[in-house]
Design a protein that fits this description.
With about 250 residues, the chain is an all-alpha fold. It has seven helices and no strands.
C-alpha cells in the first residue's frame, strides 16, 4: 500500500494557487513593508509598459502613426468616449484619473498572462486600494460639489413615499458595499482564470505525450482569459464612470 508521500510524488502534483504567493525577490523567508517582492517587480513592470506605450510610442506624434501609436490613440479615444457617454462633458474633467486606472488594470492583467509572470491584480491588496481610492474620490467629490445635497443619491424621490425609507436603507448599504464588490470582482476573476490554466497545465505535464486534450483546453482557456482580462479592465473602469456620474448628478 502506497504512503501519502508516494502518492503525492507519483500522482498529479498540481498546486494552482502557488502562482499567487508573494515572495521576496532576493531571497529570504520573511516579508516586511520594505521587502522587494515578485509583486513589486510586476507592478514596476506595469508602469514601465504603460510609459513605453503611452509616452515613448507617441513622442513623435507622426501624421502617419506607427502601430504602437495607433494602439495608444485607439485606447485613449475608447476611454474618452466612455467617460463622456456615462459621466457627460462634466466628467471629462476627471478623465486623466479614469484613464490611468484603465491603463494600469489593463496592462497589469495582460502582462500577468506571460509565462512565469505574476498577476498583481489577483490580490485584494491591490484591487482593494484601487476600489477604495475610487470610493473616497467620488464620495468627497459629491460632497464638495453638492454639500448635503449629495445625500439625495440615497433618497429615491420617484418611488412611493411608503417605500422610500426602505429603499434608503438599501441604497446606503449598496453604496458602502461598492468598494468590496468593485475589488473582489476584479481579483476573483483574475485568480480564477489563472488557476484554471495552471490546473490544465499540470494535467498536461503529468500526462506526457498523451496530453493533447489538456493542451487544447489550455489554448481555449488562455484565449478566453485574454478576453476576460480586457473585459475586467473595462468593467472596473465603466463602474468608476457610473460612480462618478452619481457624484456629479446625485438626484434620481
Amino acid at each position: 500500500m502506497a504512503t501519502g508521500t508516494e502518492e503525492a510524488s507519483g500522482g498529479f502534483n498540481i498546486h494552482p494557487m502557488d502562482q499567487f504567493v508573494i515572495k521576496p525577490l532576493f531571497g529570504g523567508e520573511h516579508l516586511h513593508w520594505y521587502t522587494v517582492t515578485n509583486q513589486t517587480l510586476w507592478l514596476f513592470l506595469t508602469i514601465v509598459v504603460i510609459g513605453l506605450l503611452m509616452v515613448v510610442s507617441i513622442r513623435g506624434r507622426a501624421m502617419v502613426p506607427t502601430r504602437m501609436q495607433s494602439v495608444a490613440e485607439v485606447i485613449y479615444g475608447f476611454v474618452h468616449k466612455m467617460v463622456r457617454d456615462i459621466a457627460g462633458e462634466e466628467g471629462l474633467k476627471y478623465f486623466p484619473y479614469i484613464f490611468t486606472l484603465f491603463m494600469f488594470i489593463l496592462v497589469a492583467n495582460v502582462i500577468g498572462l506571460l509565462p512565469r509572470s505574476f498577476t498583481s491584480t489577483s490580490h485584494i491588496a491591490v484591487t482593494g486600494v484601487l476600489a477604495m481610492a475610487v470610493f473616497i474620490f467620488v464620495t468627497v467629490l459629491g460632497f464638495v460639489k453638492h454639500g448635503l445635497g449629495f445625500l439625495k443619491l440615497f433618497w429615491i424621490s420617484s418611488a412611493p413615499m411608503a417605500l422610500r425609507p426602505i429603499l434608503l436603507i438599501i441604497e446606503v448599504i449598496s453604496y458602502f458595499v461598492r468598494p468590496v464588490s468593485h475589488s473582489i470582482r476584479l481579483a476573483g476573476n483574475m485568480m480564477a482564470g489563472h488557476a484554471v490554466i495552471k490546473v490544465f497545465a499540470g494535467f498536461a505535464g503529468a500526462m506526457g505525450i498523451g496530453a493533447i486534450a489538456p493542451i487544447v483546453a489550455i489554448m481555449a482557456v488562455y484565449g478566453l482569459e485574454m478576453l476576460v482580462v480586457c473585459i475586467q479592465a473595462y468593467v472596473f473602469t465603466i463602474l468608476t464612470c457610473v460612480y462618478l456620474n452619481d457624484a456629479l448628478h446625485p438626484g434620481h
